[in-house]
Amino acid sequence: MEWCVTMPKIELHAHLNGSIRDSTLLELARELGEKGAIVFSDVEHVILKHDRALSEVFKLFDLIHVITTDHETVTRITKEVIEDFADDNVVYLELRTTPKRNDSKGMSKRSYMQAVLEGIRSVNSVEVDFSHKANADTSAHSHFVDHLCNGTRSKKIYVRLLLSIDRRETAEAAMETVELALEMRDRGVVGIDLSGNPVVGEWPTFLPALEFAKKQGLPVTLHCGEVPNPDEIHAMLDFLPSRIGHACCFEDEEWKLLKNLKIPVEICMTSNIRTETIASADVHHFADLYRSNHPLILCTDDSGIFSTSLSSEYALASSTFGLGKREMFDLAQKAIDFIFACDGVKRELKMIFATALKKLNSQH
Ligand code: 6MZ
């Protein structure tokens, strides 16, 4: 585990409101309780419970959204979540969040995202790169920090954003999110995600907005096959998304299709096990995809809700499937190929991993 922490890592599937620290959530809930907006004793045990079925997770998100959806809190949680990932030696983070409208707080989807940007700007424990300057001096290798060291030197994290469409949204709301994402491309937004309760909403509702995103060159990732729904899985694969998340409930035919299409899969082992979408780690589809050399990325999904970290996900995969340090490092490094940020960032990440590898080799 210690080694997994020291290794540089890339996080491509993390939901902002699922990655909040328990301590922050409890503090905010207590404050709302004092104001009489919620009954704290009713929600405390809900926040602290860690094993919950998938349907219960979405009830918890409704509660979290009541607690967090105002500008100041969105800024705070964004800052903390980035600092936590940086602490875990994540060097590139694609953070996804659903832009929310909340009339009672004077919040629009745009102002929600401004609060997120404010959170990114207010990070101070680590240097943040959140929108790449073309032709930036990539020879400035010196400030790329040594990512296999124990933290005395300053750190840098690349942060990019994906805007999520919630499956409860209408076709119009989905389109509004895509338009906002396009407007924010020069402010770190690199793609679109479709997420939310998988038993809610219909694929055709989101398709026009997702097609539009694709046409505009905005990469799309889809939560796909989190519950059994072969028709939807087929339709999603036909759409040719740039990546998919989960892929838990695929049948033979869908695996075949996915492997032929070589669509990278964001794997969230702890999330899948905690929500009982997958019975246990040893039967997780990571093993089959890894053995078939299918593109995959280990991710946290909701590190706050499932009490995990990216290092823990690597440690879990390593201990369950007997993968050594070199295999773990290669897996982490391969994720570079699947990020949505530009080639300049990919080149810089390759340098970071090359430096880390040299250090690793010199230690053995
Ligand atoms: C599907 C999920 C999810 O966007 O408010 N979300 N959607 N499956 C999952 N697996 C457990 N985990 C999180 O973050 C919270 C939102 O992310 C989606 C849900 O829509 C949830 O409301 P944001 O920052």
Automatic annotation (TrEMBL):
Molecular function via GO: adenosine deaminase activity; metal ion binding; N6-methyl-AMP deaminase activity
Q: What is its EC number?
A: 3.5.4.4
Q: Which SUPFAM superfamilies match?
A: Metallo-dependent hydrolases
- Give the matching PANTHER family: ADENOSINE DEAMINASE, ADENOSINE DEAMINASE-LIKE PROTEIN
Q: Which organism is it from?
A: Handroanthus impetiginosus
Bilayer-spanning residue ranges: none
Q: Which family does it belong to?
A: Belongs to the metallo-dependent hydrolases superfamily. Adenosine and AMP deaminases family.
Q: Which cofactor does it need?
A: Zn(2+)
Entry-linked CDD domains: ADA_AMPD
Task: Give GO BP annotations, semicolon-separated.
Answer: adenosine catabolic process; inosine biosynthetic process; nucleotide metabolic process
All copies of the Adenosine deaminase domain together span: 8-349
Q: What is this protein called?
A: Adenine deaminase/adenosine deaminase
Q: Give the first-level EC class, as a single word.
A: hydrolase
Question: What reactions does this protein catalyze?
Answer: N(6)-methyl-AMP + H2O + H(+) = IMP + methylamine
Cite the entry's keywords alphabetically: Hydrolase, Metal-binding, Nucleotide metabolism, Zinc
What the entry lists under InterPro entries is as follows:
A_deaminase_dom (IPR001365), Ado/ade_deaminase (IPR006330), Metal_Hydrolase (IPR032466)
Q: Does the keyword Nucleotide-binding apply?
A: no
Q: Does the keyword Zinc apply?
A: yes
Q: What is the lineage of its organism?
A: Eukaryota, Viridiplantae, Streptophyta, Embryophyta, Tracheophyta
